[in-house]
Every structure is written in C-alpha cells, then in structure tokens.
Specification:
Elements lengths: L2 H7 E9 L6 H10 L12 E10 L3 E10 L9 H5 L4 E7 L3 H5 L1 H11 L8 E7 L11 H11 L2 E4 L8 H13 L5 H7 L3 E2 L7 H6 L10 E2 L1
Parallel strand pairs: 1-3, 1-4, 4-5, 5-6
Antiparallel strand pairs: 2-3, 7-8
Bound molecules: guanosine-5'-triphosphate (GTP).
EC number: 3.6.5.2
GO molecular function, one term: metal ion binding
Catalytic activity: GTP + H2O = GDP + phosphate + H(+)
Length: 221
C-alpha cells in the first residue's frame, strides 16, 4: 500500500459529546471506547478524552477522538473552544429526565454558534440515553423525532448501561461524516448483544415461582 493510500485510510474525526450533567455522556464514551460501565456518578470537570479506531465498510479505518464534555460547562468560557471544528456532535439527554431534553435547545444553539466560523459543519445526532429505563421515560419518542426532523439531526436511542446501540450511534455519525452508506446487515451487526443484570432470587422467591429461571443471565438479541 502506498503512503497516500495509508494516510487516506487513517483519518481522525473529532466527535464531541454534549448535554446536561448526569445524562450519561461519560458512560456513553466509556462504553464505546472501553466497553465498560460504572454505576457510580462521577462528575466530569472540564472534559475527558478518548480515542477509538473503528472500521467502516470498504476497509476504511478511522480513529474517533471522543471529547466528553462536562455538563457544567454550559455557559462557561471554554465550551466554544471545545466544540469548535468538531466533525460530529452527539447531543445527549436522559429519556427519564425531561429537563435534560428541554435544555438541548441551549446545547444545540451553543454548538451552532461555536461552529459559525468553522469551515467544517458538524454532523449532529440526537441521542436519547438510558433506554434500559423505558418504564421511567418522561420524554415521549415523538418529541424526540420532531426535534430531529425540525433540525435535520440523526436520531438514536441508546443505553450506555447495557451497551444497546452505543457502537452504532458512533458508527452512524462517522459514516455520515465520510459519506459512507451502512447497509441493513452492517447496522444489525453493530447492535450489540445485551446482557441483563444478574438478579439474585431469594430461596423464598424461587420456591414460589412456577417456572424458576434456569439461568441468572439472559441474552437479548
Ligand atoms: N440506568 C442507566 N443509567 C445510566 C446510563 N448511562 C449513565 N447512567 C448513570 O447515570 C449517571 C450519570 O452518568 P455520567 O455518564 O457520569 O453522566 P455525564 O453526562 O457524563 O455527567 P457530567 O459529568 O456531570 O456531565 C451515573 O450514575 C451512570 O451510572 C444508562 O444508559 N442507563
């Protein structure tokens, strides 16, 4: 392979992740880059940074620089600088926290303003996180879809906790930036197998269950 071919296959894309505090940005970035999840909330001060190399159809390798931006930076002086020149932006909210959805207007305005003078206009995706908590949802899916349609955003629902669609949401944004089409099979392949939490049934509960579970883990395809 010639040098120029190698260069063209190893592009770096800057992807920034923004949204309210505690909506799950660090969890999303950590799930994507390190395939891990921590239940405990640790507030991001300023920003964190992750690198992950992914492959797209056509043997295209790209390295994503993921900028995980602390929710408390909204209104701060540094935010414009973090967001400037991004190729992709993930606008994240928590589907169980209505306020985090309402505040997206502010995050979105900030993203547009920060890139006003940039040559690159970012691909923006709206990410509804915590879909493992569907029973606690307070933001209706049609509100989410409307926001996407009105603003030309890619729509995604994910769970950083289970990993559901996390890889896919980064992959879709990278593909859109590079003008690569993902086919149905590739999209399905990127939806990870989800492992449920291990539930410890007490002896009492098992005794009362007609069909006691055979295994403490289930796999959702
Ligand atoms: N159930 C569930 N909890 C999640 C999910 N993603 C994140 N959390 C939890 O939500 C809390 C906040 O997650 P973080 O990833 O730290 O949130 P953040 O948006 O980075 O917060 P800031 O650093 O303040 O900007 C943590 O307790 C996470 O374990 C998810 O998909 N499902």
């Amino acid at each position: 392979m010639s040098d120029s071919e190698e260069d063209s296959q190893d592009r770096q894309l800057k992807i920034v992740v923004v949204g309210d505090g505690a909506c799950g940005k660090s969890s999303l970035a950590t799930r994507f880059a390190q395939e891990a999840f921590g239940k405990q909330y640790k507030q991001t001060i300023g920003l964190d940074f992750f690198l992950k190399r992914i492959s797209l159809p056509g043997n295209l390798n790209v390295t994503l620089q993921v900028w995980d931006i602390g929710g408390q930076t909204l209104g701060g002086k540094m935010l414009d600088k973090y967001v400037y020149g991004a190729h992709g932006v993930l606008l994240v909210y928590d589907i169980t926290n209505f306020q985090s959805f309402e505040n997206l207007e502010d995050w979105f305005s900030m993203v547009k303003k920060a890139n006003e003078e940039s040559d690159v206009q970012p691909v923006i995706s709206l990410i509804g996180n915590k879909i493992d908590l569907e029973h606690m949802r307070t933001v209706k899916a049609d509100k989410h879809q409307r926001f996407c349609q009105e603003n030309g955003l890619i729509s995604q629902f994910v769970s950083a906790k289970t990993g559901d669609s996390v890889f896919l949401c980064f992959q879709k944004v990278a593909a859109e930036i590079l003008g690569v089409k993902l086919n149905k099979a590739e999209i399905e392949q990127s939806q990870r197998v989800v492992k449920a939490d291990i539930v410890n049934y007490s002896q009492d509960t098992v005794a009362r269950t007609v069909n006691p579970p055979r295994s403490s883990m289930c796999v959702v395809q």
